[in-house]
Structure formats: C-alpha cells, structure tokens
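Appendix B. Raw example, untouched.
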Amino acid sequence: MKKRSKRYKEILKTVIKDKKLDTKTIIETVKKNSNSKFDESIDVSLRINLKQSKGGDLSLRTVVNLPNGSGKKNKIAVLCEPDKVDEAKNAGADIAGADDLLEKIAAGKFDFTKLICTPGMMSKIGKHGKVLGPKGLMPNPKLGTVTPEIAKAVKNIKTGLVEIRNDKDGNLSSTIGRKSFSTEKLLENFDHFIESVKKEKPDTIKGEFIKTIFITSTMGISYKLGARK
C-alpha cells in the first residue's frame, strides 16, 4: 500500500463531501493547502463533450490570454530572418536566430519552452515537425506562434498566453496562476478561461459542453465544481 505523507493526510482533512462549493471557496481552500516551499501552480481541469451531432469528435486546440498572466516563466526562441534577429531580442526573446537556430534544433538542442516562427521560415522548419511536434514546440498559426508580428507574439507569451488542447477522452487542463496570486486575480483568470472555452463550442454539439470542472494545485488535491453549459 502506498504510504501517504503527513502533509497529504492533513490536506485530506479539508475535503468537504456531498456539498457544492463555489469557485471562490475552492480557490481559497486550494491556496491554503498549497503549503510547499515553492510557488505552486493553480490549475483547472475540464472534461468537455466531444460528441458532435454531425461529423467526427471535436478536437479543440486554442490559446487563452489570461488577464492576470499565468505566472509561468517561458524561455522563448524566435526563428526568423537574419534582419529580424535584433527585433526579436529587443522584444524580449531569450533566443533568436535564423539558420544557426535551425542547426541547434537539428542537433536536438531544445533549450527553450516556446518557439515562435515567422511565416518566411516555416518552409525550413517543416522537416523538424516530427521532433518538435511531440514536444509541443512546433509553431502553429492558430496558436499565434507563426506570425510576422514578433514583438506581439513574444509579449503575449510572456504575459500569460496559455495553450489548451483536449485529449481523446475530452480532458483538457491549464494553469490559471500561482498560489502567490490573490484570490481575486485567480477568480478573474478562472472566469476568463471558462468563458473562452465555452466560446469554442461548435453548433454541432448539443447540450452541455463543459461536463466537469476541477481546481487543484501542483502538490494538492482536486476540488470539483458543478458543470457549466
């Protein structure tokens, strides 16, 4: 039998059974339980309805720009034409390059967490898709990472743009901030996140779109909210 830590056992005492909790209460409880030494991530997990009345199952992949940021620090690389390298660095990119950056990617040196690419360089990076894709690093126009507006793209990622996508069972998750955020900021991020997901519901899906909502922290336990249509 797996042995539970003293800290985990104390957190379990905060579970409230057979009671519908409002979002604010859950966020305050999750923050209170985030008593590890680092700034834990506060996360939301959803299960959405994938079944469309026409066609195949829904595949949702998009980005949400959290109003108060995510608190996550990304290391951003920009693949661009040589004459745009200085622009990318001035915009705040941690790494910027053209053929030299392609060489690093080809050698498997991925010392970044996000990759932005200008449209003119996409033809050169395509052959690396099989390596970048599984790592979630392949630039995508729908996610704002293939764009001629380098400064805007870097700023968006630095200030709270988060990517979401569902798995085959309809599960998707995202951070909505850190335990150091105020309850009010986490609430605002949460509401914005939920509304953004609801807007992605296609007309071909009938009934409720969001089936379940859970809020948790990196080292904590999950608390369930009621479903939202």
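End of appendix B.
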